[in-house]
Amino acid sequence: MEFDVLKSRTMTEIVRRFPRPQHIGAAFFPEKPIAGEIAGWDVVKGARNMARYVAQGGEAHVSTLLPRLRLSAATALIKEKKTIDEATKNFIDRPGAYDEPYGEQAITDELEALDRMIENRREASRWYALTNGQLDVSQSDPAVRFVVDYGMDATHKIAKTGTEKWNDLTNSKPMDDLLEWKILIAKDSGVNATDMYCNSTVMRYLVGNSDIRDLLKYQVGDMLAKNGYITTLAGINITVYDTTYVDDNGDVQYYIPNDKVILVAREGLGKTFVSPTDVPVGDTTKKVVGKFSYSWVTKDPVDTWMLVGVRELPVIQNPDQLVIATIV
Known about the structure:
alpha+beta; phage-related protein like fold; six-stranded mixed sheet; five-stranded mixed sheet; 6 helices; 19 strands; globular
């Protein structure tokens, strides 16, 4: 029996509708379709100079062009597939009588599992970029190697040392650090940092810090009781992100590592370039931009295959709006 859910157009529509509210990194990188496989973007330094007064009828002052660094990189292809073998098809079809609603739900469940793998990889790429200032992929199976550098200034990559490390709960000064990084972003980008992101390990350092514990008595104690963590500090919104994934070695990892904090002005930070991919449709192919899915049948053995994929590249376009801190 041929299920409508195994038609390419239907499959693509289904995988694009699966909700992933737990993946908050997507908000940093709204999608932008491009025509080819090469993404190009400008790293632009914001203008903070003032325009000049001129006399009535006078000529306008000539301004210089913005400092601009042109970067480009190939979009990366992510895809996974699985087969619905004879045993599974028997399970789906319930031998002796077709059960179309049951079968389509079973296929949709398998599609959702494939799509979850794709979205986990996309989210891991976003947070690798946000916590390293570049995207560095070194994969052995299958062998894939590439590095995309976003031109982030070294002054925006902070490494705390000695007693400055946040796990030194007595001597470290997280409040001072956040204020210093906030000033750095404002000075270099012309916009104000609004948000900090970390996981619960880092939040424990904040809550246990001697200086911040003094604040807890007067300012944020009620906040901590209600939310389980500090939600605002030094005028910065704090998000604790503890969502995990399983890496290629089978180990559970946080999207934000235990030693990382990012401070960011989110608006305009970056985007995800999505490229077209050839997708089979009947006896021909068509180009699909963004996430795609399709199925096909092999004759020997007689198996039905399902595939989900996307060709994309997350890009930080305004790296001066981001500070990446290694705090332990």
